[in-house]
Design a protein that fits this description.
The protein is α+β, with helices and mostly antiparallel strands. The protein has four helices and six strands. It has helices at about 25-35, 55-60, 65-75, 85, and strands spanning about 1-5, 10, 15-20, 40-45, 45-50, 65. Strands 1, 2, 3, 4, 5 and 6 form a six-stranded mixed β-sheet that branches. The longest helix has 11 residues, at about 25-35. It is globular. It comes from Actinoplanes auranticolor.
């Protein structure tokens, strides 16, 4: 399932959401491509999407969840990649 949190993370003059899959990275990348999110927006285990893409993510079928639930679902699926484990890999 594709999950998204509300755009509330400020950076570069706008607000951003996190887009994840609790199924696979393949599902996530396919959804992000449909959304028009560039691959460079992928950060270890999620896509950062700007607030202007948020309504389209919902329209395409992403499920809106709180940020804590998003992280918990990633961990439960074994798809969480924390920064401290990603260094050098």
């Amino acid at each position: 399932m594709i999950l998204v949190d509300e755009p509330r993370w400020p950076s570069r003059g706008r607000l951003w959401s996190h887009l994840v899959s609790d199924v696979s990275y393949a599902e996530l990348h396919a959804f992000a491509e449909m959304l028009g999110a560039p691959r460079r927006a992928f950060d270890r285990d999620h896509y950062d999407i700007p607030d202007v893409r948020f309504p389209m993510a919902l329209w395409l079928g992403a499920t809106l969840v709180r940020s804590r639930e998003l992280s918990a679902r990633l961990r439960a699926a074994g798809l969480r990649r924390p920064k401290h484990l990603s260094r050098g890999s």
